[in-house]
Amino acid sequence: MPRVLLVAQETGGVGKSTVTRGLAEAVPDAPILEIESVHRLTEFKAATAANEPGSVRHFLMRASREAIDASGGKAARAEFDDVINALFEVATATLVDIGANTSASLLGVLTHEALALREVGIELGLVVVVAAEAGALADGGALLHAAKDWAGARFVVANAVRGAVDPDLLKRVAGDAVVTHLRQFELEDRTREVLAAGQLRGVDRLDRAGLVKQTSQAQAGRMLRDLTAFRLAVMEAVKPAALWLVEEAPVAGRVGTSAGGSKRARNA
């Protein structure tokens, strides 16, 4: 039974794409479905076939937030047919990156499709990314609640990108979901530029000698240390979700899952 891990948040700018990228580093063979108004995961190769390892398929979402609100969500739901069809074609562990303003609408559709997906052997899980803002926490709680009846597992990544997340609020929002934390990183401007150019996938391929030509020995070493630490921190934050994604799903009627996970998930 292949598993599909949805990464969601209605509030933008909380690090959802970073979490997706961390999951892709932890499970590098997982194909990605990107449901966004703008194609952001450009460092991945474009899929030329369904379930192509390590590739991304972009599903353009054209509906604005105003159109979604005015139509009661119908403006977004009308665009989900290709996404739902792609989910029914899943044959291996797969990641789904859902854009802001789209997550609630898609999860609403999946409330009606999850049983049919499970009947054909596809299990859904959910990762919600939250930050310090009350709006992000409230949106995260709503998404977790929407998936409580059909998600095989639910995870919360508390990203301190905008400050520490209140532990009491986080506990109320997360409920019985598995919670991990991503600490805040203060990266230098040049380091952020390098990260933006190659994203997490590029960190492991950076060459110190090449960085020295652009900066200096001291700065190159500092940049490499900071970016490596950031990449590892993201992978550590997504580790429980990554292990769930590649675990062998239980056979119908059997209780429990493999405790050790799969070697297909890289060690964080």
Could you name the key traits of this structure?
268 residues; alpha/beta; 8-stranded parallel β-sheet; 10 helices; 16% strand; globular
Question: Topology, please?
Answer:
Layout: E1 3-8, H1 16-26, E2 32-36, E3 45-46, E4 55-60, H2 65-70, H3 74-77, H4 81-88, E5 94-98, H5 103-119, E6 123-130, H6 134-146, E7 154-159, H7 167-174, E8 178-182, H8 189-203, H9 208-214, H10 217-246
Parallel strand pairs: 1-5, 1-6, 2-4, 2-5, 3-4, 6-7, 7-8
Briefly summarize what is shown:
This protein has helices spanning 16-26, 65-70, 74-77, 81-88, 103-119, 134-146, 167-174, 189-203, 208-214, 217-246, and strands at residues 3-8, 32-36, 45-46, 55-60, 94-98, 123-130, 154-159, 178-182. The protein is α/β, with parallel strands linked by helices and 268 residues long.
Describe this structure in words.
The chain is of the alpha/beta class and 268 residues long. It is 44% helix and 16% strand. The protein is built from 10 helices and 8 strands. It has helices spanning 16-26, 65-70, 74-77, 81-88, 103-119, 134-146, 167-174, 189-203, 208-214, 217-246, and strands at 3-8, 32-36, 45-46, 55-60, 94-98, 123-130, 154-159, 178-182. The chain has an 8-stranded parallel sheet with strand order 3-4-2-5-1-6-7-8, sandwiched between helices. Helix 7 links the parallel strand 7 and strand 8 (178-182). Helix 1 packs across helix 10 (217-246), helix 6 runs parallel beside helix 7 (167-174) and helix 9 (208-214) packs across helix 10. The longest helix has 30 residues, at 217-246. The two termini are 25 Å apart.
